[in-house]
Amino acid sequence: MFAKIVAWWGGLSAADLTWLCIGLAGQAMFSARWIVQWLASERRGRSTVPQLFWYLSFFGGLFVFCYGVYRMDPVIVLGQFGGLIYARNLFFVRRELREGVMSA
Question: What is the pTM of this model?
Answer without folding.
Answer: 0.83
